[in-house]
Amino acid sequence: MKGRPEFLPAAIAALLISFGTAERLSWLAQGAAAPPDGALRVVERQQAAEAARPPAKTYQRIRRISDKYDLEFGFRNFNGDPLSVWFTLDSKSVELSSAEFGYTEEGLKSLKEWRRQAEAAANAAEAEEVKSQYHARLRSYLASRGFRLLSGNQAAADIPKLARGNSKALRPAALQFSQLTELKNYDSEATIGAALSMVQTALKYRIPPSQIGGRHTGGVYPPLEALVLGSGDCDSKTALLASILLNWSNIRLIGLGVPGHYLMAVQRVPYHGDFYVEYEGNPYVLMEPAGPGWIAPGRVGEETQALLRSSAGLQIEPI
Question: How many CB atoms lie within 10 A of CB 36?
Fold first, then answer.
């Protein structure tokens, strides 16, 4: 479930959006109609829908060995193939990624103290400039901690920035999916589907705590932390999937934030039965990384459909 933004300096919950991309996975929209941006559309099925096949037994094996994490995830792809990926992550990279994410009360207090002293030394004409500088410093501080300042003195985790900042460290995971592409002769749909299925089913659905070690997290795990913990919610899993896919080129992704939920979409021509939205004149096919449901690209849950069709509070953001 997507976190609810709260007023600073209270614990911040994540708002907004996140996504990823992939190399040879080149999907470019062609000849699409152009309803209003964000309007949910579906390509009418011209054949009976196939019965959903339940995933194979999913598993995760996560071990800390000296200065590395040894990770293995098993899952079933949407074409029915049982798959597994194995890779390692440097423990220092994991620790640094977590330590750099999340603002602290100490950081906010330091900014407030600067403002107090500046206002005390300012005359009436300078007071407004002090206020402006304070908000600029606050935005800069939050940005350095992976957050953005919203209207109404609220803050939210910057999921796109989080995904981009962790993509290089997740190159080992991306290489595993590249190898699957070669081994299984997958097209772009099957390759992205494999990454989506892993995130949905091999990682448990769990809402992160709002504070970890004195850091306000907005209820989000950074991608590396989500992997070594083997869990996350819609925000965390979307950031994780995006971080993996960002290791390739030629894919365009957007994030979709709706009240209480958050998902992503990839730019390509929709297939029969696909749910998609139009953004800047191009169709983007929906994906739900959150799990624990096994939902193929182009499919979304009934509750998500209702939220998207209402367009209430819908936010779209490119990655």
Answer: 8
Q: Tokens 């600067």 — which residue?
A: 114
Beta carbons within 10 angstroms of residue 241's beta carbon: 27
Q: Which residues pair with 148 in a beta bridge?
A: 156
Task: State which of 45-49, 121-125, 298-302 shows the largest mean pLDDT.
Answer: 298-302
69 backbone dihedrals φ, ψ, rounded to 5°: -105, 130
Please, are residues 253 and 241 in contact by the beta-carbon 8 Å criterion? Answer: no
DSSP, collapsed to helix, strand or coil, labels residue 232 as strand
Domain spans in the chain, listed from the N-terminal domain onward = 40-102+145-318
Rounded CA-CA distance 270/284 in Å is: 8
Q: Which residues contact 228 (CB under 8 A, 6 or more apart)?
A: 62, 64, 69, 71, 89, 94
| Alpha helices (H) along the chain | 91-99, 105-121, 124-144, 159-166, 171-184, 188-197, 223-229, 234-245, 302-310
Q: Tens digits of per-residue pLDDT, 77-124?
A: 999 999 999 999 999 999 999 999 999 999 999 999 999 999 998 888
| CB of 97 closer than 8 Å to CB of 229 | no
Q: What is the pLDDT of residues 268-277, one digit of tens each?
A: 999 888 999 9
